[in-house]
Amino acid sequence: MFGLEKPAGQQEPGRSGGFPNMASVGDFNVLSSSIPATKVELSVSCRNLLDRDTFSKSDPICVLYTQAIGNKEWREFGRTEVIDNTLNPDFVRKFIMDYFFEERENLRFDFYDVDSKSPNLSKHDFLGQMFCTLGEIVGSQGSRLEKSIVGIPGKKCGTVIVTAEELGCCRDSVLMQFCANKLDKKDFFGKSDPFLVFHRSNEDGSFTICHKTEVVKNTLNPVWQAFKISVRALCNGDYDRTIKVEVYDWDRDGSHDFIGEFTTSYRELSRGQSQFNVYEVINPKKKGKKKKYVNSGTVTLLSFLIETEVSFLDYIKGGTQINFTVAIDFTASNGNPSQPTSLHYMNPYQLNAYGMALKAVGEIIQDYDSDKMFPALGFGARLPPDGRVSHEFALNGNPQNPYCHGIDGVMEAYYRSLKSVQLYGPTNFAPVINHVARYAASVKDGSQYFVLLIITDGVISDMAQTKESIVNASKLPMSIIIVGVGPAEFDAMEELDGDVVRISSRGKFAERDIVQFVPFRDYIDRSGNHVLSMARLAKDVLAEIPEQFLSYMRVRGIKPSPAPPPYTPPIHVLQTQI
User: Cβ(353)–Cβ(520) under 8 Å?
Assistant: First the structure.
């Protein structure tokens, strides 16, 4: 069966020939113009579909739609094949999609009972649909999402099972080391200063440079240092593609002398150290001129080691949970919440900046948290009944259990707090950072990772303590996102971000970069299209999380847990009547 797998959208002979992929090249997504983090393959199965045929069972097909971010319009992405006469199809044709952690990709799976060869879906019986996000599938246990099919009132439409599999062909890297013997002498006074240049061949026969070794000075028998290169860079995942290696003698003025070249391939190199991986270095000009020319030396492969790079999705699939905590700035500098000029203004018709930032980031992260329970904290307010100032209070008023259900629960608790607390000061970040750090310090085995979102107007009072908290937290499985709202100068926030200068406290530097800061005002869409501007905000604040997450796991030597075994559909025994 699996030899037949092909991405949806390629036509297959037979019944499904009338169902081309409707997605056009014009569907370019402005936000996705970056290189995709990875590709995932979606497999679809259904159980207990509605039976729309009188004399036999339905002949189902699945049609996948994706949603454009700006105008929310659904576009067809592709179709599976049609499977005749079954209510429990396991579709062979897969959907291959680009996956970005930092984007919310809305999906819709529609199911039809196909009654004719017509590609027009309105000519077939609708069997129901299922809505989800790509993050929801990937974030489910074992990257397997099971959901009820809906859309036909009063009918049970069955269930759909969607499984995501990361395409791993290009996740390998190789560690290689080469040496050379008896290279041609090119320098007048000393021996040569050789280095190697690797090129991969392109489809059109041209070559693209993909690696240069260091220069080994004054020797005709150099041993170069081992180097690591991704298989994608070396041969674009094609094991038989030609790899050309040139040998040069380095010159200070940049006019390096060509010693010679040889060709090989990933498949040849993968044999490792052997007689097959000793290459004659040939200089075509010399070979043409001199009858007795043999070669310009030899290059030998000393070692070849394949390493599979683990990805963010490997950890998610192995069960690592992302825990999301929100901390909101309730200091007086935000302005009185009953006034329209306040950053906390409770406008009945529109979210304020705090609400918009919270929703944009939270709606993506919540797909990776199985219980959807989020601690929500506030800082810098006077609390009832006695007016004491707190720098880490529960928005839901319950310090023993500050958890809110889903992002909507967090929003509700935020609005309730605004009515009961008094905005005050000062603006201290350290207490909420330390609050999350206490939890992160208790689970360092890679099973959980913590993300703290701080939304603030940016006038910070405890800079020294906050820096110390961040330096300490950089050793823990956590990341901090800061969204600055309002018109303030955010110089202090830029310093905490540490992208230009690594943050330090009392001479100790942060072990890794864990803070990402963005000013909310950069994302206010002048045309009033909040959906698009909030999608951009979420993209920018979340884009660094997978790499920060991986840097923690790498430093600690934590490998992903094995994923739960893949789902095997139950075998249906056909009962024959005697």
Answer: yes
Residues in CB range of 544: below 8 A, 6 or more apart? 479, 513, 516
Grouping H, G, I as helix, E, B as strand and the rest as coil, residue 508 is: strand
Q: Is 422 helix (H, G, I), strand (E, B) or coil?
A: strand
Half-sphere exposure of 64 (CA within 13 A, CB side): 29
For residues 155 and 222, give the distance between their C-alpha atoms in angstroms, rounded to a whole number: 75
Intra-chain end-to-end CA distance of the chain, in Å: 32
| Domains delineated in the chain | 38-167 (2.60.40.150), 172-308 (2.60.40.150), 321-556 (3.40.50.410)
Q: In what order do the strands lie in the sheet with 144-148?
A: 95-99, 38-47, 159-166, 144-148
Q: What is the pLDDT of residues 469-520, one digit of tens each?
A: 999 999 999 999 999 998 888 888 988 988 778 899 999 999 999 999 988 8
* Angstrom distance (rounded) from CA 532 to CA 145: 27
User: What are the φ and ψ backbone dihedral angles of 220, each rounded to 5 degrees?
Assistant: -100, 0
Whole-model pTM?
0.69
The mean pLDDT of the chain is: 86
8 A C-beta contact, residue 57 and residue 114: no
- At 520, give phi and psi (nearest 5°): -60, -35
Amino acid, single-letter form, for residue 422: Q
Work out the average pLDDT over 370-390.
Answer: 94
Tokens at residue 328, please? 């909101």
Q: Give the number of other CB atoms < 10 A from CB of residue 25.
A: 5
Q: What pLDDT, in 10s, does the model give residues 265-291?
A: 999 999 998 888 999 999 999 988 888
- Whole-angstrom Cα Rg for the chain: 30
Reported as a single tens digit per residue, the pLDDT across 137-176 is 999 988 899 999 999 999 999 999 999 988 765 578 899 9
